[in-house]
Amino acid sequence: MTMFLDLFASHALLAWLAVGAIFLTVELVTGSGWLLWPAGSAAVVGVVAMIPGLNLPGQAAVFALLTIVSTYLGRRLINRDGRKGHDPNDPHARLIGRAGQATAAFEGGLGRVFVDGKEWAAEAVDEEPVAAGARIEVIALVGGARLKVKAA
Is residue 121 a contact partner of residue 110, using CB atoms and an 8 Å limit? Predict the structure, then answer.
């Protein structure tokens, strides 16, 4: 164990970068968002460890403090639950609120519309009649691939 501590003390920058790389690797595998902050803190401590006289317990204290502060601030400033708007990874959600055009007259409240460069299956709100070529607005996504529309 003392050999490991001696190696760590003599190559503190590389050791802390290795610790940060381990945290970052686990973060990339899990995608939790929690290990990003300790990974960054370890990299910063690696640079701070170059200060003469800062021993391993002092480096560990700086790491703990930086991890707590960066995690708190990171989670507070990057609030996932408070986002407004659609998920950028959901291509269908961005269609809500878009305008389009009916490609044919709706029958029984069902028809097809042209929105955002594509033709989509659609259903009208309250089965209201929609004529061919009429302007529509997308108000919801039904069943994953059908748009709920209203006449604009």
Answer: yes
Per DSSP bridges, beta strands 118-124 and 146-151 are: parallel
Three-class secondary structure of residue 119 per DSSP: strand
Model pTM? 0.51
DSSP state of 51: S
Query: What is the rounded CA–CA span in Å between residue 127 and residue 134?
Result: 15
* Domains of the chain, residue spans: 2-77, 93-151
Q: Is 6 left (phi over 0), alpha (psi -120 to 50) or beta?
A: alpha
Q: Please give the Cα distance from 100 to 116 (Å, whole number).
A: 7
Q: What pLDDT digit, counting tens, does each position of 13-69 carry?
A: 999 999 999 999 999 998 888 899 999 999 999 999 988 888 889 999 999 999 999
CB-CB contact of 5 with 42 (8 Å): no
Per-residue DSSP letter, 93: G
> Contact, 120 vs 92, CB < 8 A?
no
Q: Which CATH architecture has domain 93-151?
A: Beta Barrel (2.40)
DSSP E strand boundaries for 38-145: 99-102, 110-115, 118-124, 135-142
